[in-house]
Amino acid sequence: MEQPANRSRAARSDPPEKSSSFRRLLLVSLLVGVSLAGLGSDLLGAISVSLPVSSMGGGLVFGTVVVSSLWVAGFRPSLAASGAYFLGQLVAHLLLSGAFVAVVGSGASLESWHEVGLRSLSIGLTATLCFTGVGSRVGDWVRRRGRRLLRVPPADGRGDG
Questions:
Q1: Distance CA 76, CA 59 (A)
Q2: Which of 62, 67, 80, 96 has the most crowded Cβ, counting Cβ within 10 A?
């Protein structure tokens, strides 16, 4: 009878899970919150509301609130996925901005709502690829096709799909 009581006391005294550590929250906030801060800054510039805070400060508050809300709601991505999101979002935003300029013309400048739209699109696409099962399937497909092009045998022993 004493053993279950000892186990329950030991379970209560264990440190919190690694997935919910404050250090991990800060790293995820840094990696994911930067793009959201940029979106918040663009939104404040597009809305052009007079606030007692700079657009950068407002963007940082926006990014912090969104990341913290997602964290409290239970969304706790791995650091690898957060790092992939950070790099992927930068690349996606550059590619989308370049494509926009190529389609509209090099003389045209991005209006504030165009920037909000492009940043939202790059955040949405990158988040879908990094934080959902779609991204792992796309990564597996790219890996299989790359191995086939390089004529390297499959790593898992299966044939190409």
A1: 21
A2: 67
| CA 58/CA 44 separation, integer angstroms | 7
- pLDDT tens-digit series, residues 61-114: 999 999 999 999 998 998 989 999 999 999 999 999 889 888 887 666 678 888
Please report where in the chains the tokens 């890996």 appear, as a residue.
143
pTM of the model: 0.73
Sorted by where each begins, the domain ranges of the chain are: 2-149
Q: In whole angstroms, how far apart are CA 1 and each of 4, 6, 8, 88?
A: 6, 9, 12, 54
Q: What is the rounded distance in angstroms from the CA atom of residue 120 to the CA atom of residue 149?
A: 34
Q: What is the DSSP string of 103-117?
A: HH-TT----HHHHHH
Cα 75–20–135 angle (5° rounding)? 35
- Element containing residue 39 per DSSP (H, E): helix 22-47
